[in-house]
Write a structure and sequence with these properties.
single chain; Leucine-rich Repeat Variant; mainly alpha; two-stranded antiparallel sheet; about 190 residues; globular; two-stranded antiparallel ribbon; 6 helices
């Protein structure tokens, strides 16, 4: 529904994010009030329990749809991480921007990435491409995730020599090429 353009407020999105993080199997999930006290941000440990991988597939399809939605949404940095209130001006982003950290944690924190069904792994990698192309990682609410994005790209690139299907290998190489093309100064020592 969110990806279809239904109007949603920040508090509702944060509640949905909290529930999604629980369903996906992350531990130490908590809603920490921001220093302004009006909203909260969702904190969670970025390691995922492998026992709940069977529950991931339906959520990944919907997560992809929300990340790919082009509906504008104003997001404040304190909804994504700790931030000082004077610098907490809303940034014009997309409605799926609030879930970017969940996707990055799914890719970097899942030890069973290769044990997931083919379509789920493919959808995760496609979602990473969507994040790189559509979401402004230079904006104040998402800037702190640039290191996680690099780790996610490296994680996807490390899947190439593991004997994946040809389609997933090509998609993984596309992710690396896209990252190098969009952020040549931070790509560093990527070897393709």
């Amino acid at each position: 529904m969110i990806s279809s353009g239904i109007n949603v407020d920040l508090l509702t999105l944060l509640k949905l994010k909290t529930r999604l993080v629980h369903i996906l199997g992350f531990s130490s999930v908590s809603a920490i009030p921001s220093s302004a006290g009006q909203i909260f941000y969702v904190a969670f440990e970025h390691k995922r329990a492998t026992a709940s991988s069977c529950d991931v597939s339906p959520c990944i399809d919907e997560l992809f749809s929300v990340l790919d939605a082009s509906h504008p949404f104003s997001l404040v940095a304190s909804a994504m991480s700790e931030s000082l209130p004077p610098n907490d001006a809303p940034a014009p982003l997309l409605v799926g921007s609030i879930f970017v950290d969940v996707l990055l944690a799914l890719i970097t924190g899942s030890e069973d990435l290769l044990d997931m069904p083919f379509l789920t792994t493919k959808r995760l990698i496609e979602s990473l491409l969507v994040v790189m192309y559509k979401h402004d990682m230079e904006s104040r609410p998402l800037r702190h995730l640039q290191g996680s994005l690099r780790r996610a790209v490296l994680r996807v690139l490390s899947l190439v020599p593991t004997g994946l299907s040809y389609e997933l290998r090509q998609l993984s190489l596309t992710v690396a090429q896209t990252y190098i093309k969009l952020w040549p100064n931070t790509s560093g020592s990527f070897v393709l």
